[in-house]
Amino acid sequence: MAVGILINLLLLVVVAYLAGAASAAAEVSSWLDVVPSEIASKLDSGSNAAARFATDYGGVTRAAYPAAVFQPSTADDIAALLRFAYCAEPPFPVAARGNGHSVRGQALAPGGVALDMAALGGGRNRINVSSEGAYVDAGGEQLWIDVLEAALRHGLSPRSWTDYLYLTVGGTLSNAGISGQVFRHGPQISNVYELDMITCSSESNRDLFYGVLGGLGQLGVITRARISLRPAPARVRWLRLFYTDLGNLTRDQEFLISLPDPTGFDYVEGQVLLSHQRVDGSTFYSNQAVDSINRLKGESNTIYFLEGAVYYDSPSMADQKIEDLMKQLNFVPGLVFSNDVTYLEFLNRVHNEIEKLSSSTVLLHPWLNLFLPKSRIRDFQVGVFGGILQNVNHTTGPILLYPLNKHRWNDIMTATVPDEEVFYTVGFLWTAATVEDWGTFDALNNEILGFCDQNGIEVKQYLPHYTSKLDWARHFGLVKWEKFVQLKRRYDPKALLSPGQQIFTTQVNTQEGMHAKL
Ligand SMILES: Cc1cc2nc3c(=O)[nH]c(=O)nc-3n(C[C@H](O)[C@H](O)[C@H](O)COP(=O)(O)OP(=O)(O)OC[C@H]3O[C@@H](n4cnc5c(N)ncnc54)[C@H](O)[C@@H]3O)c2cc1C
Ligand SMILES: *[C@@H]1O[C@H](CO)[C@@H](O)[C@H](O)[C@H]1NC(C)=O
Ligand SMILES: *[C@@H]1O[C@H](CO)[C@@H](O)[C@H](O)[C@H]1NC(C)=O
Ligand SMILES: *[C@@H]1O[C@H](CO)[C@@H](O)[C@H](O)[C@H]1NC(C)=O
């Protein structure tokens, strides 16, 4: 997918009108006392508002509260807020908050302003499908479920997804946006034609467009994205094929992602089931299926399933395609289960699971997501699935495992992936019931990362969490890091944006890139 290069910027021109206020600020207790009237009514410094914005989906990160919550009605309001933040003495941080579905405090703004993106547009759906159907314009605050429903009203759909749709356009584009369609269409960041952004600079260059995609909220606030569309299929055959051998699973997954459109599956993922993990009757499995799977679990230790989907309008064509493909796959004979659902039901499949969880007491999510080079998957299996995780007899939450292909990613963007054409995403989506439990999983995550480090397995974290500059520099690699530092210097020189990522904690001086030792 070609990425458009048009950048529409709502420039943040730093003007002098605040100069008086800024010099006065030294004598007043806080910048909160000198809020410009144009934004004062949208800034809430009450502790109730602040408390709501002091945590996230991860549930454990409890940073200091934001000093205030800002509810913009328009993009101009955001520009006014950033202008104020930039000129205040001292300047204060601002974090756009999409749906707060980060798990490590990435959208928090301790002591600064939490920018409540949901307020943008005042509750109106800011989503327009183009008349010829090539793209949809969506506000950065919009949830993907709403973008999908709007597109479906025209018989259309974005191409690339996340597993869960109650995430914002600006939030996933700040990371990458991945799911089982990436092998065919690239991540969500590869399907964007245009962006509107608000930055802390009067410059606007093409580098900003690429920098913001996967840019972890560091360079600007995305207020609109133009996203590529395709015709939506009517229905989906949704399959799960079981394996006792990881080599066979990955061979089949890699075969499937090598097939060109329209042959092969339209979606390919997979999961690992550890020895103590059982499947239960859910919307996917019949009781009979549950019995056969758990019988297989009794015989083998760790088992795996490949999850695939075939989009279709004609049932007979779907049948034929699946029949042909099944002959070429090496799952355990008979252990294939399928469902037939609407396209919307398929894309929104995770929603019910999440609702079930959030209505119970389980609220903590110490997740770890990795991109693992294909050449090291065997070592990872031995050390992690067959090693570290075998010593654990209680986990909850799925472990995702599926391959992606590097040529669908654009290396000019900030998002960072391993240096091999095929790499695996491995997602440990733990849920913890207590803080102690959280600590156990966090320790397990660190053990996994330590294992990779000691064995020279060059994983990249997805939705990365690091706290030292050296680790961030390693994450990006020398070339990308220096470029990222330059972009930061240009578009957010006072390092005000998304401080919860813990990348740039002070003003970005010119030396920063130079001193990173790798
Ligand atoms: C249940 C669940 C399932 C998930 N499944 C997937 C998945 O399948 N694939 C996948 O790729 N990810 C997945 N994620 C991760 C998700 O992509 C991230 O949490 C992401 O941050 C989006 O969440 P959000 O919109 O709530 O953003 P937030 O968590 O609110 O923000 C994320 C970061 O982006 C910044 N930001 C937010 N909005 C903007 C904006 N408009 N402009 C600039 N910066 C902004 C924030 O300051 C913060 O640094 C999942 C998360 C959860 C909780
Ligand atoms: C949608 O179209 C209306 C009317 O042209 C326009 O005012 C609005 O800004 C558009 N919204 C987005 C998100 O592009
Ligand atoms: C893996 O696939 C091969 C080739 O189809 C098959 O012979 C073998 O039995 C499979 N191994 C397991 C453990 O399923
Ligand atoms: C496994 O669970 C039992 C109790 O259910 C516990 O006593 C034991 O320590 C656990 N083992 C490990 C390695 O976690």
TrEMBL record:
Source taxon at top rank: Eukaryota
Gene Ontology MF term list: cytokinin dehydrogenase activity; FAD binding
Enzyme class, spelled out: oxidoreductase
Statement: the UniProt record of this protein carries the keyword Amino-acid biosynthesis: no
Enzyme Commission identifier(s): 1.5.99.12
UniProt xrefs under InterPro entries: Cytok_DH_C_sf (IPR016170), Cytokinin_DH_FAD/cytokin-bd (IPR015345), FAD-bd_PCMH (IPR016166), FAD-bd_PCMH-like_sf (IPR036318), FAD-bd_PCMH_sub1 (IPR016167), FAD-bd_PCMH_sub2 (IPR016169), FAD-linked_Oxase-like_C (IPR016164), FAD-linked_Oxidoreductases_BP (IPR050432)
Keywords, in A-Z order: FAD, Flavoprotein, Oxidoreductase, Signal
Pfam families documented for this protein: Cytokin-bind (PF09265), FAD_binding_4 (PF01565)
PANTHER family found in the cross-reference section: CYTOKININ DEHYDROGENASE 3, GULONOLACTONE OXIDASE
Protein name as it appears in the record: cytokinin dehydrogenase
Source taxonomy: Eukaryota, Viridiplantae, Streptophyta, Embryophyta, Tracheophyta
